[in-house]
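Now for my pick.
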Amino acid sequence: MRTLAIECATEACSAALFEDGVLLAGTLEVLGRGHAEWLVPMIAELPDRGRADRILVSLGPGSFTGVRVGLAAARALALAWKAECLGYPTLALVAAMAREQQPGEAVTVCMSGGHGEWFMQDFGVDGLPTEMLASMTPVNAGGRANANAKVLAGSKARELANFYQEDQVFLDILPDARKAMLVPYSLVTADLGPIYGRAPDAKLPGRPA
């Protein structure tokens, strides 16, 4: 079985093709913006233009636009190829990448969020979340981290480490589709609802009295 993995929920944009779980090819670019322009050509450069039996796509949290771009591409390709389409949480991938570098350790993932806040979630040694995803100010994030997690990972890991007096291992990691097979399969879902991590800024107008 071939699997196409798509990851563009953050400033990084990546795509990878696997055969029976083994990486065939993949690319990652740190863009900041422009995922919509980069993603499809990136997939087209993969073997067989990325055609796969299954598609794995990041559900977020991260950039509202990036999450939507990835999901739209995954759904369109799944329809065209008659492929299965599944999603995974972005922070779970970051935690899995950290555990690959620091085996047997609990991980606190801390990523850039919106309006100066950070997305944060703790993961156990099995790679599964031990706390709910939260979006919070840096100060509040500094007081929330799992006291047992010696490994901090993500785009804000270095800054989070500044809140600790102990020596924490911090890994400046952006999610990478080439590592998608590391995500615990129990976290992979057929529910493709995006994980935004915080309430939308726009509010619907109230009903007239």
